[in-house]
Design brief:
The structure is a homodimer. Chain A is of the alpha/beta class. Chain A is 46% helix and 14% strand. Chain A has an eight-stranded parallel barrel with strand order 1-2-3-4-5-6-7-8, surrounded by eight helices. In chain A, helix 2 (40-55) packs across helix 12. At the A-B interface, helix 3, helix 4, strand 3, helix 5 and helix 6 of A face helix 3, helix 4, strand 3, helix 5 and helix 6 of B.
Chain lengths: 287, 287
C-alpha cells in the first residue's frame, strides 16, 4: 500500500515548518517581463516552473489552478501536466485545483486522469453537489494511489453564501450538511495521523463558520484558500486548526506568485521571499 | 451580436424533428473492434468522429463528456478539441459536459477556454455550488459568444438526493433553491424564443421533481440526461417540456453510441438507427 496522503502531507508540513501551500494561478497579462513571450501557454509554463523552483525550499505544497491552464486548451493542458510533474520532482505535494465532480462513471474517468494518469497530482479538489456516489470513485482511486481529496464545503467567494449559507429545516446550513456527509464518507479512510484522505475546502474569509466546521469534521484536513489577496487574515484561519496546530493547509496565490510586481529584486527572489514570509506568518500564528 | 443560443437550439431541434442529444461518453473497453487500436486516445477519437457522422442527420446536438477525454491527459484533451470541431463542422450544436465551476476569476478562465477558446463548444454544463458570482463569468462570455449554459439543478444519479433533496427551512429543497437562483440569474438573457441562455440540468430519473422545476424555471431549457441506459423513460421526461413541446433537450448516450454491440449490422449503421429511434421516440412523446 502507498503511504496515506494525510500522513505524507502532515510530515511534509512539519519538515518545511508550516502547513502552507502556494496557489499556481498564472494569468498571462500579469506575468513578469522576464517570462513574457507571444505564446501565452509557453509564458505561463515558464512562469509556473520558475515559481515552483523559487518556493520549493519554503513550502510543502503547491496548488495549480486547472482553469488557468485549460484556458489554452490542449496546449495548456500539456503545460499543466508538465507543471505537476515538475512540482513532484521538486518534492512538493501537488493539490490539483480542478473542482471536478460528476455521476459515478464520469467521476471515475476524472479520477483516473487526475489521480493516477498522465497528470496525476497528489490530491484533487472535488465538487460534491452530485452526492456521495459522485465522490466514491475519487475515494476509490485515491485509496489505491495514496492520494487525497478536498471536497468543496465552504468557499471563500462572496456569492457562495447564496447557496452554502441556506438553512435546512433541521437547523444546519447547506455547508454544514455537506460537511457531515464528507466526515461520514471519510471515516473509513483515516491514516496514522488521525486524518482522512478525504479533506474539505473551507474558505479563509468565513471565520465564523470555521470553528463549527472544525468540530463537525475532526478527521478532515481543511484546504484553506483565500489567505492574502482574497481577504483572509491570520486570525481568520486560526479556527481552521486543531489545538495541536494540525488540520489545515493554508493557501496563498496572488500574494506570493506576483510578489515580484513593483519590486526592485529579481522577481523569482521576491517570490521566494514571499513564500518564506507566508511560511513564517502561518508558523507564528500556530506558535 | 451572435444569434442567441436558445433560439439556435430550438431552431435546430425543429429542423431535425425532435429535441434530442447524443451523449459522447467513449470508454476504451467498450469500443467496437473496428476502431480498436493500442492507443486509447486515438481509439476514442476514431469512435467519436464516426459516431458524430452517424448521428448528424438525425439529431440536433451532441454532448461530449469531458471526463472520458481528460482521462487521457493532454492527448485526450486534444482529441476532445477535435471532436468538438468535427461536431460543429457537421452542423451539430455542441453541449460540452464539463460541469465546471469555481470562484469568479477561475470561472472566467474556464469560460474563455470552453466557450470562446481552443475547444469552444456551443454550450457548457456548470456546477453552481459556488454561487452566482461563480456563474456570472460564464454568463458574460456566453452572452458575448452566442453560447449557452446548463447549471446542475437536479442530477440523475441515485446519490444526488443526499444533497439536492434536503429540505430548507422555507420548505424548498436544495434543488428548488438552486433552480430559483438559476431562473433569477437567467432573466436578463432571454432570447426571441422565450428561453434564456442560462439553462438547467434536470435528470430524467426524477419525474416527481420535473413538473415543479418546470414551473420554477419557465425561461430555462432543461438538459435532461439519463434517458435510456440511466433508467429514464419516455413518461419520466414528459414533465420537462412545456405544453408546446419546447423547453427540454433529451440526452441519451450509451443507448445510442453502443447500439452496435451484439448487432449484426455494421456498428455505425446501428448507431445511426439508434439515433433515428431516439429522435422518433421523443417526437412521439411530444406528438
Amino acid at each position: 500500500m502507498p503511504e496515506h496522503f494525510a500522513d505524507r502531507l502532515i510530515a511534509a508540513c512539519s519538515t518545511k515548518g508550516a502547513p502552507v501551500c502556494v496557489g499556481l494561478d498564472p494569468v498571462y497579462g500579469k506575468l513578469p517581463q522576464a517570462v513574457a513571450c507571444e505564446d501565452p501557454a509557453a509564458a505561463i509554463e515558464a512562469f509556473s516552473l520558475k515559481v515552483i523552483e523559487a518556493v520549493a525550499d519554503y513550502v510543502p505544497a503547491v496548488k495549480p489552478q486547472m482553469a488557468c491552464y485549460e484556458r489554452y486548451g490542449a496546449a495548456g493542458y500539456a503545460v499543466f501536466e508538465r507543471v505537476v510533474a515538475h512540482a513532484k520532482e521538486a518534492g512538493l505535494i501537488v493539490v490539483t485545483d480542478g473542482k471536478r465532480g460528476d455521476i459515478g462513471t464520469s467521476s471515475d474517468h476524472y479520477a483516473a486522469g487526475l489521480l493516477s494518469g498522465h497528470a496525476a497530482g497528489d490530491s484533487l479538489t472535488v465538487n460534491g453537489y452530485l452526492g456521495t456516489d459522485g465522490i466514491q470513485p475519487f475515494i476509490d482511486t485515491a485509496t489505491a494511489r495514496g492520494a487525497g481529496l478536498f471536497v468543496l464545503v465552504r468557499t471563500s467567494n462572496p456569492g457562495g453564501d447564496a447557496i452554502q449559507s441556506c438553512k435546512l429545516e433541521d437547523g444546519r446550513s447547506v455547508a454544514q450538511m455537506v460537511a457531515d456527509h464528507v466526515n461520514q464518507a471519510g471515516k473509513s479512510h483515516v491514516g496514522k495521523s488521525g486524518y482522512s484522505l478525504l479533506g474539505a475546502v473551507v474558505g479563509a474569509t468565513k471565520p465564523e463558520d470555521a470553528a463549527d466546521l472544525r468540530e463537525r469534521m475532526p478527521e478532515q484536513v481543511f484546504l484553506v484558500p483565500g489567505f492574502g489577496a482574497q481577504g483572509g487574515t491570520a486570525d481568520d484561519v486560526k479556527a481552521c486548526f486543531k489545538p495541536d496546530g494540525t488540520g489545515a493547509l493554508i493557501t496563498s496565490s496572488r500574494g506570493v506568485i506576483y510578489a515580484g510586481s513593483g519590486s526592485d529584486q529579481p522577481w523569482t527572489q521576491a517570490v521566494a521571499n514571499a513564500a518564506q514570509q507566508l511560511r513564517d506568518d502561518v508558523a507564528s500564528i500556530l506558535a
